[in-house]
Specification:
Length: 281
């Protein structure tokens, strides 16, 4: 597929109401520009407009996905398409859920346990598409991920079959997701409150968005996991470390994401402590 083909597909999907974004080599989003590094710009609050972040490029991973043809054809995005390796979309922004089946065993399980729906072949398995959005979740079963809100999926075509409504059986997977990670034993200290324990930047939603994006950055690390965990902890602390808004629950979410990538309690604690030391917290 040529880069012009990718742009054409992106515009076609956007016209159908599917928020799109380019992926670079390795099937990962384009990194944030310097102005948006560490989410200093405040991020993008929804999937249909690029504001309040003024960055004209495809920053912020899934949150950059858009249906605006002017944005998709703009200079910064066009330059990204020239380097892109694939087209991705934000399923939740299109009111869709993708059950990503990564191998033959996962496909066999899905055929027994889930209602038939539109099916798209992937490199190693299948994407099952359902109409409806839900919380995304990784590793809900061996070889099974759920991609919907606050996530992205690679566009691989329309597939075959008729899309059906999102069933309770899929929603239940995220609720009853089996834990393969040992509970985190937190041995970290909290920064001193800034003002009444409220985030001084915007709203609690800004903090939640930042934690969710940090979890996703860790989950999607395909190499240099140690360094990714440290950089992510540093980014979270540089933005929220002096607010008093970070709680043990937030830290546990970050530690759990890191443990799911094979990190130990000790490494998580060391990375957190080192990040705080670097920032003088």
């Amino acid at each position: 597929m040529t880069n012009s083909d990718q742009l054409r597909i992106a515009l076609t999907l956007a016209a159908a109401g599917v928020p799109v974004m380019p992926l670079r080599a390795g099937k990962v989003p384009f990194g944030n520009c310097r102005r948006c590094a560490d989410n200093a710009c405040g991020g993008r609050p929804n999937m249909k407009t690029p504001g309040p972040c003024a960055c004209p490029g495809p920053c912020h991973a899934w949150a950059a996905a858009t249906t605006d043809p002017d944005v998709i054809r703009s200079g910064p995005w066009r330059r990204a398409w020239l380097r892109a390796s694939a087209v991705a979309y934000h399923p939740g922004g299109a009111w869709l859920t993708v059950v990503d089946l990564d191998n033959a065993d996962a496909i066999t399980w899905a055929r027994r346990a889930l209602p038939a729906t539109q099916t798209v072949p992937t490199t190693r398995g299948e994407h099952w598409l359902y109409l409806g959005a839900m919380q995304s979740a990784n590793r809900v079963r061996p070889g099974v991920d759920i991609k919907s809100t606050m996530s992205y999926a690679r566009w691989l075509g329309f597939g075959a079959g008729t899309m059906t409504a999102l069933p309770d059986a899929v929603r239940a997977l995220a609720v009853s997701k089996p834990s393969t990670v040992r509970p985190v034993q937190l041995a970290v200290t909290m920064p001193a409150p800034w003002r009444s324990g409220e985030c001084r930047h915007r709203t609690p939603a800004y903090l939640e968005r930042g934690i969710a994006m940090a979890e996703q950055a860790i989950r999607e690390a395909s190499s240099a996991v140690h360094a990714t965990v440290y950089r992510t902890f540093l980014a979270v602390l540089s933005t929220h470390g002096r607010c008093g808004c970070l709680t043990e629950t937030h830290i546990e979410r970050l530690f759990t994401a890191a443990q799911a990538k094979g990190e130990t309690d000790r490494h998580c604690t060391d990375a957190w402590t080192n990040a705080r030391t670097r920032l003088g917290l």
